[in-house]
Amino acid sequence: MNTAQDVVRCSQCTEAVTHHCKICQKNLCLQCKDEHIDKSKSTPHEIIPFTSKHHEWQKCVDHPTELKTFYCQDCKVPICQLCPTRNHKRHGIEVLKDICETSRMTITGDLKELKIFKVEYSKVIKGLEEKATIYTEHTNHENSSLMKLGEELHKIVDREIERIQKQLANMVKEDLQILQDNKDEMQGSYKRVKYCIERNNRLLEEDNPIEMLEYKSSADELRLVPSMKDVSPPKLIMPNIKEEKIIEQVVSLKPSVHSILPGFTISKAGDISMVSTRVLMTEPTLIKAIFTYSKKLKGICCESDEKVWIYGDDEEIKQLDKSGSILNVFNAVSKGIQKDIAINKDGHIAFAHEEDECINLVNKKGIEKFVDMAGWIPYGLCFNSEGDLMVTTIRGGLRKLTTFNIETSLSVDIHFSGIPVMSFRHTTEDEVILFYYQYY
Fold first, then answer.
1. Which of 26, 79, 195, 325 has a 20 to 30 Å separation from 98 between CA atoms?
2. d(CA 268, CA 109)
3. Which domain of life is it from (predicted)?
4. How many CA atoms lie within 13 A of 56 on its CB side?
5. 308 and 258: one domain?
């Protein structure tokens, strides 16, 4: 039976507690609840009914009369205000409310991402279901064609028809199993996303600091949608049948094609980035040699498989096709010291001017100055996967990589300290968002 000493008291008076402020981590009676809100109106409050759960985790084990309002960074446990004088002396101490607020923000952010993941996984599953339906319809049609051929060839080809039917059935079973496995895998991830959403909602509703401290984010694990095997349906090869060559020309079966569909990552904003399945060649293969009419080629960037932009010692930026024909050209006089060019998905071309220490953009309006580098000499240029312009620059013995947003001109710098002095020439970004530069 509870005694009077067991009653949890209000943090501001001696009355029994009835409510709890999640933001301030204070227990409040009915009378002090309104006073607490009015006293600090500039601070957000979240008042909830007080339960035994709040009292259980608030009590300090070593000091039962004290509440756990701090957090020991060394021991990774909540403590009261008296604990630092004994068991946690000289330990790193933080306010428990601040730790919980940080965790709450992480959970809220993850919840937002998980909801985006849920939508994307749903799209993948729907696409797999549609693909399985189309595949089945196609194979059913192929099977009907096979039966019709069997009727035409009668007993002469019955034996071969039966063999190919079995081959087709096994292939269909294998392919549908692949598609089903893809769907099962996506549904497993989809259920995991739903579970994480429910868990995060529960954590935010219950606001239990112990569970929040134990929380481990699943967002990074679920961000990458894995690659999947792809299946193209088998196709029957139907030759023109001649009586004298019936046996030779019995229909054969072209196997289904198995390939890999690239996975993709989901950014915090919900943007999709494909993960390439391409493998680098062990030996380079020459596709085409293009005559550029330039003695010294300083910059090159590919617009597509058919078109390329170049910059040479003639102070002109040219667009060439695979035959070497000039499709477009404009002057970009930089006194022979322009080093690199880059093109984005919108067709905007960027090139550096060393003497003017600026970056120029070429668009439908013509050439215009995009940004002044303020004493830094620009060299290598490239547009990254986000559409931002990456520029490598030097000034004396200092070197840095700067990323510019084309729309806002906002920039982010990466400084290279402790690296030998180098001259940046070319910069690019690979498909896992790492950048490379060439130097000498």
1. 195
2. 9
3. Eukaryota
4. 6
5. no
Residue 164 belongs to a domain: yes
Say how far apart CA 311 and CA 299 lie, in whole Å.
5
Taking only the tens place, the pLDDT of each residue in 210-221 is: 888 888 898 888
Average pLDDT over residues 53-58: 61
The total number of residues shown for the chain amounts to 440
Residue 74 lies in a domain: no
* CA distance to 280, 292, 414, 436, per residue, from 289 (Å): 21, 9, 37, 25
Residue type, 129: E
Q: Which residue intervals of 65-154 are DSSP H helices?
A: 96-153
372 and 242 within one domain:
no
Please give the structure tokens belonging to residue 45. Answer: 């409050």
Task: Give the pair of three-digit tokens for residue 315.
Answer: 């102070």
Mean pLDDT of 101-130: 88
Sign, CA torsion 58/62/66/72 = negative
Q: How confident is the model at residue 342 (pLDDT cuts 50, 70, 90)?
A: confident
Query: Is residue 132 located within the same domain as residue 185?
Result: yes
Instruction: Please state, for a pLDDT cut of 70, what percent of the chain lies above it.
Output: 80
pTM given for the model:
0.38
Domain of 169? 99-274
Same domain, 105 and 161: yes
Number of domain units in the chain: 3
Mean pLDDT over each residue of the chain, to the nearest integer? 78
Higher pLDDT, 378 or 139: 139
Which CATH number fits the domain that encloses residue 45? 3.30.160
158 to each of 151, 153, 162, 345, how far by Cα in Å? Answer: 8, 7, 6, 57
pLDDT value at 420 more than 50 = no
The verdict on 301 and 252 lying in the same domain is: no
Say if residue 258 is in the same domain as residue 405: no
Report the alpha-carbon distance of residue 404 to residue 414 in Å, rounded.
12
Instruction: Write b or e for each residue in 50-81: b if 16 or more Cβ atoms lie within 10 A of its Cβ, otherwise e.
Output: beeebbeebebeeeeeebbbbbbeeeebbbbe
- Asked, for residue 269, whether it belongs to a domain, the answer is yes
27 pLDDT more than 70: yes
